[in-house]
Amino acid sequence: MNCYNHTDQPAVATCIDCGKGLCSECSNKYNIFICDSCNLKRLYTEKSSIATRWGISIAIAVLFTLLNFEMLPKDFLIYLIMLPAMIICVFIISISIQYGWRALNSVMPPVSFVVSFFIGWLLIGWFLALIGWILYVSIRVTLSFFIGLIITPIMLFKDIKRYKEVNRTIKYISKG
Predict the structure, then answer these.
(1) pLDDT for the residue 129
(2) Model's pTM, two decimal places?
């Protein structure tokens, strides 16, 4: 088998995604044995997932801001002063909850929601299980917020850095 990119070179490895042959030059291009087209697919997927995470964070922040709009005082001057501060606070809170939730999911998978409810339902009845489940979710959201306050700046920095890195790599691979 020959390299898919350099047809005169013998293949020394195969792409882990598609199985194309890679010569020594192509196989040493990345940390893993992968062809350019498969690596581009992976990079576009990663770029899309980062953008989706940001989109979800912004959507949650906008939703929380709109839901908390009624809490503003009705006095116009105080309203003008408090509106920007409230929007900023709600954005920080909701983005922190989202990043904290992801961190908690890495330790405790979300399937535990359903499992905890059904085990509680079987053991103590549906009403107490529902109350327990609501308490569980409330505690989890609170933990997500506090963990998120610590993690959010770090994760945003990492996400932005990785997003730029992925864009540079995509441009480099696309140029040839």
Answers:
(1) 72
(2) 0.70
